[in-house]
Amino acid sequence: MAGTYYLEIVTPNGKVHEGDVQSVVVPGAAGSFGIQAQHAPLISALETGALEMVDADGKRSVLAIGEGFVEVLSQGVKLLTDFTNRDEEIDRGRAEKARERALNRLQEHDEKLDKARANAALYRANARLKVIDRS
User: Fold this and answer.
1) Are 49 and 67 in contact (CB under 8 A)?
2) Quick check: 69 and 36 in contact, CB under 8 A?
């Protein structure tokens, strides 16, 4: 069996996951990257996207996550993110409507539009849809 390490995922609402995993693939600011046991220490920014993890028993899970940070230390990995959604928590119709609303806002030529906020809504919707499609 592959080596395992402790993973903790924390949002502003508290811990959403803690336990041993074999591996995690996170959406880093410079692209997705994997973390396995004995990974070198690092701190990296996270982008909104899909996180894939394989638990200690070999079960694969996919979560939508928001922006944040990941810290890899010899004691384990800590991931701080502004939100997470498991596939069973995501409503496809709602995510598709959110994506459509965000795209429509971004196509408008309204000077008062907060483009960063509209882009963030689009990224969240896309991440949620990606998780549904991978599950």
Assistant:
1) no
2) no
